[in-house]
Design brief:
Elements: E1 2-5, E2 11-14, H1 19-31, H2 51-65, E3 69-73, E4 86-94, H3 100-107, E5 111-114, E6 120-126, E7 143-151, H4 154-163, H5 169-178, E8 182-185, E9 188-191, E10 204-206, H6 209-216, H7 220-225, H8 230-238, H9 245-252, H10 259-264, H11 266-279, H12 290-296, H13 300-319, H14 322-329, H15 334-346, H16 380-385, H17 390-406, H18 414-432
Parallel strand pairs: 4-7
Antiparallel strand pairs: 1-2, 3-4, 5-6, 6-7, 8-9, 9-10
């Protein structure tokens, strides 16, 4: 938030949106209220709809779309909204053999714009296609814009409907989530930053909206019952344990605003004003941390396991390389690999395909085997090497090399190796040969 005093009576207030939020808003602004059709229908107009026309069009088209999808709905509109630029449907589980042309026919659409092969499609429907009791637009090329977002499954459909309901409420909840180091979106609730694994991974806490609201300390029943006013939406959001008016006000001081986005997202801006009003004289609440979020969803052990595995693998990459083994032992070529294999075996070996360690039990990290990604499962040798310093690894490498050398295991027999390679090649050719009956 930026505070600019014009004079002692006038205070100009501007707000900042997080980068990800403003990117989403700019994309939304581009596609709303007929903007999506500016290139292919340059002379057309898309008049804004009164609540009466909007509700009539929504009800009429919903009846036409329901036979085409298992689930279809329009997210709850923002309370007190005076007009509408388009109608947004969210659907999932299309009926068998459903085609794009069938959807166009059901909607009575004249043109459509698929969004780069994505789930969203914009449709232009002539105003004269339906008798909705509204005054006709002055232009004969007047259209309604209808957007249909087809989700991958019912679970995603529920999240998308929730996040797009009641205007900017989804963005407001995400703003509250960020204070705890988490991010709320249409895929669920996740940590704000990817884990520093290799490769980095996104760590989700939950994909369940009821569980999300439980963490926020908000009532799902109240959300489902609806809100009569914008203020009621704000009061509901402010009842969350994550709402801290003083902290929200401090976070936005001195940042630049995203003017175009805020001109459209007036509800989001109004909530920031609401938070500033609540901040006056309010005592800061106890901070809800990312660690608290992990514990709430029972993900702390899995999170620790992933980080532990990442640190152990990074440590192994830094202190146990072929170049270092060459420097420490003086061996070159293939014997370097043999020494490294000997060290790994000395420390417990690798994992078999079934997840069991060679000569041992399945590996667990801190007693919590990860269910998210196999990246959390360390091999025994990686786990055993993690507490070792580079000097201790060096001593172990030299010890293994000396023992292998004394046993004659570092002498490379090129003729024997070539013979084994030729034997494997002949066996492979024999296995691939097919006898054709004459």
């Amino acid at each position: 938030m930026r505070l600019t005093y014009i004079n002692k009576h006038v205070l100009l207030v501007s707000f900042v949106l997080p980068k990800t939020t403003s990117t989403f808003l700019n994309r939304t602004i581009t596609n709303m209220g007929g903007n999506a059709f500016k290139e292919i229908l340059p002379t057309a107009c898309f008049p804004r709809m009164s609540p009466a026309v909007y509700n009539a069009l929504k009800a009429h088209l919903l009846m036409r779309l329901e036979p085409l999808y298992e689930v279809v709905a329009v997210p709850h509109e923002a309370p007190e909204k005076v007009d509408h630029g388009d109608v947004d449907f969210v659907a999932a589980q299309p009926r068998q053999s459903l085609t794009h042309e069938m959807v166009m026919q059901a909607l009575g659409a004249m043109r459509s714009i698929p969004q780069d092969g994505g789930p969203m499609c914009n449709f232009a429907i002539p105003v004269h296609a339906f008798e909705l009791g509204a005054a006709r637009a002055d232009s004969p090329e007047a259209f309604y814009q209808v957007d249909v977002n087809v989700c991958a499954d019912r679970a995603e459909w529920e999240r998308v409907v929730f996040m797009h309901s009641y205007g900017d409420l989804g963005m407001i909840l995400n703003l509250l989530a960020r204070s705890a180091g988490v991010v709320l979106g249409t895929h669920g609730l996740k940590l704000a930053n990817p884990l520093p694994t290799s490769p980095p991974i996104t760590f989700y806490l939950t994909t369940s909206i009821p569980d999300v609201l439980s963490f926020f300390g908000l009532s799902m029943d109240q959300w489902a019952a609806g809100f009569a006013s914008q203020r009621a939406v704000f009061d509901w959001a402010a009842s969350s344990t994550l709402f801290d008016a003083p902290r929200l006000a401090r976070r936005n001081v001195g940042r630049a605003s995203t003017k175009k986005a805020l001109e459209v997202r007036t509800m989001y801006q109004a909530f920031l004003m609401y938070a500033c009003e609540r901040a006056a004289g309010a005592a800061p609440r106890a901070e809800v941390t990312q660690d608290a979020a992990l514990r709430f969803f029972g993900k702390d052990a899995e999170h620790d396991a992933l980080l532990h595995a990442a640190r152990a693998r990074q440590h192994a990459r830094e202190v146990f390389t072929g170049k270092l083994v060459e420097e420490w032992t003086g061996v070159r070529g293939v014997p370097v690999r043999w020494v490294m294999d000997g060290v790994r075996e000395r420390l417990g070996g690798e994992l078999r395909e079934d997840g069991a360690a060679m000569g041992g039990a399945p590996v667990q990290v801190h007693g919590a085997a990860s269910t998210q990604l196999p990246v959390a499962r360390l091999t025994p040798w990686e786990s055993a090497m993690f507490p070792l310093s580079v000097d201790e690894v060096r001593a172990l490498v030299i010890q293994v090399k000396d023992e292998m050398q004394a046993a004659g295991k570092l002498e490379f027999d090129w003729r024997a190796a070539k013979a084994r390679k030729m034997e494997r090649k002949l066996m492979q050719q024999s296995a691939e040969k097919v006898d054709i009956p004459i």
